[in-house]
Amino acid sequence: MFRNAYLLLILTTLFWGGNAIAGKLAVGHISPMLLTTLRWALAVLVIAAIGLPQLRRDWSVVKRNLPLLFLLGMAGFTMFNAAMYSALTFTTAINVSIEQAGMPMFIFLANFLLYRMGVSPGQIVGFTLSLVGVALTASHGDLTRLAELDVNFGDALMLAAIVLYGGYTVALRYKPAIHWKSLMLVMCFAAFLSSMPFAAWEIATERVTWPDTRGWMIVVYTAILPSIASQAFYMRGVELIGANRAGLFINLVPIFGTLLSILILGEAFHLYHAIALVMVLGGIWLAEQSGRKRAAGS
């Protein structure tokens, strides 16, 4: 069970790391709100092709939980991605990487405040170790650069995105026990509907950038992997090992983002990348071992 959860969560963060790269590549080729709407529109079409029969079987349960599923789709799918894509047009990748690393801490804090869910010393140490690794990557090996970062509008948007996705992660405990196809189809449709007003505003205010060839390629990528595969994998991972333990894997996102930048954008690989990778993976392993022991002892 644990190995399945780890594989699913690693693939999730790999695709999410690619989502951040796609968001950066999208600048000038498709505007943020239009990208958000088109990715969920395509995701709905893909998942509907394989999930409609299952949704019919689950409809009685889905119908009772429509408000919750709509809110989950709006917060975790629409609002998070719209905020992140918008943030990437205002702030640097360094800032976004650091800010994403705060998501597991928000999940820990929310679970403690709302459900009095404790955190073991090993989890705190593991989280701290992985956070330092992320900061090392984000600062390009020079931690003193962190003191020079300013919070601008893009940073504020990314912080809002973190709160939204952290809240979404914690709220997944309330999702109904239905097939993942039905869950994804309803939540993707909710994301599409809730994103339409933002795209309409972008068009009405002449802020829209209509997609060119690269823009459409980004739409396809974000619809298939970050939208469908990652969300399904993440929900299953949370189901298998819980929000606190699954949330820690989010610290892999900036690491994968760095590695994908090297492969796709041709950026150089430095020693601090290797050190940070070891620290993040080591921190996740330490926190997960401690979390597993805590879960077994409770």
TrEMBL record:
Keywords recorded for this protein, A-Z: Cell membrane, Membrane, Transmembrane, Transmembrane helix
Source species, domain of life: Bacteria
Membrane topology label: Multi-pass membrane protein
Coiled coil spans: none
UniProt subcellular location: Cell membrane
Annotated InterPro entries: AA-Vitamin_Transporters (IPR050638), EamA_dom (IPR000620), EmrE-like (IPR037185)
Membrane-crossing residue ranges in chain numbering: 38-55, 67-88, 94-115, 122-141, 153-171, 183-204, 216-234, 246-265, 271-287
Pfam families associated with the record: EamA
Domain (EamA) ranges: 5-137, 153-286
Protein name: DMT family transporter
UniProt source species: Neoaquamicrobium sediminum
Lineage of the species this protein comes from: Bacteria, Pseudomonadati, Pseudomonadota, Alphaproteobacteria, Hyphomicrobiales
